[in-house]
Amino acid sequence: MHEEIREHSLRQLLRQGFSFVHEWEPLGPWTTWRIGGPARLFAEPCSEQQLLSLFEIVRAEQLPWFFLGLGSNVLVSDSGFPGVVIHPKGEFTRIEVQNQTVAAGPMARLLDVTILAARHSLSGMEDLCGIPGSMGGGLYMNAGAFGGQISDTLERLELLEADGSIQVLRRADIDFGYRTAPRLQNGIILRSWLSLQDRDKRLVWTAMRKMWQRRRASQPLGVPSAGSVFKRPAGDFAGRLIESAGAKGLRIGGAAVSEKHANFFVNMGGATASDMAALIRKVRLLVYKKFGVRLETEVKPVGFAKDPFVIEG
């Protein structure tokens, strides 16, 4: 969209008087990497009606938009995002349990969902304990760890489509893959329902504690990161390849490959998006040159004019 036309459209949206929309919100504090420039408009709808009203104008004006959950697995450009960042709150954070079903809004924290399930003696979410992020973000990327993934428990969800319609999708309707769910990428998840199983509460808590201890032992939880940077390549592990390529501890500016887990890149202080993108490209190149493996990123770039992770060769 031409810059002048887009700016006029953004102004049109502001004139609608939405109290939950404001300008030039720095996005770094909203991401787990603590990196990123401002959103031209930052919207925090508290109800479905507010979101639908906002989205109707976004669609009509053909504005670029991005749904921001809890900010894990995203790298926001140093220049920010030139359109509307949608970051819901209020009713979108709710979690409810009925029998063996957990219903959650897209902004509910995955950690809170796993804890509530455990309190109700429900099993199926233990492997996801400690994953940083929201239900919506987890479903967008089919988040998982240690063999489990969120799609294993999904029964159905409501999706606000790009055309403004609301569809109810069951797990079989969604083309979940390893850390991907393309069917969901152009919409906004409004609510999801997870189907779990009854289990002795003590066993659920024990399994969750083991997962949390495993994370603490192997991951750099005390510094800003975005979780795993690269997807697991077939028959191998990204962390092993990165370490074997000599990239563990590699640093560019304030961005570094963690000494604790080579597939975690950390903000050592003052890292920019340019630093982190350059580090990702460098590591991809080192691994490719040594092993002939093209690592795929789990991290989603936001606000960049072109893919910042592409390497030549």
**Count of discrete domains:** 3
The main β sheet shows up as: 5 strands, antiparallel
Number of strands: 19
Query: Which band does the percent of strand residues land in?
Result: 15-25%
Q: Order of strands across the widest beta sheet?
A: 6-7-13-11-12
Secondary structure category: alpha+beta
CATH-defined architecture of the largest domain: 2-Layer Sandwich
Order of helices and strands: HEEHEEEEEHEHEEEEEEHEHEEEHE
Q: What is the helical fraction, as a range of percent?
A: 25-40%
Low-confidence stretches: none
* CATH class designation of the largest domain: Alpha Beta
Radius of gyration: 20 Å
Counted by DSSP, the helix tally is 7
Description of the structure:
This protein is 27% helix and 24% strand. With 313 residues, it is of the alpha+beta class. It folds into 3 domains: 3-88, Uridine Diphospho-n-acetylenolpyruvylglucosamine Reductase, domain 2; 93-203, Uridine Diphospho-n-acetylenolpyruvylglucosamine Reductase, domain 3; 221-302, Uridine Diphospho-n-acetylenolpyruvylglucosamine Reductase, domain 1 (Alpha-Beta Complex). The strands form 6 sheets. A 5-stranded antiparallel sheet has the order 6-7-13-11-12, covered by helices on one side. A 4-stranded mixed sheet has the order 1-2-5-3, covered by helices on one side. A 4-stranded antiparallel sheet has the order 15-18-17-16. β11 and β12 form a beta hairpin. The longest helix has 19 residues, at 273-291. The chain is globular and about 55 Å long.
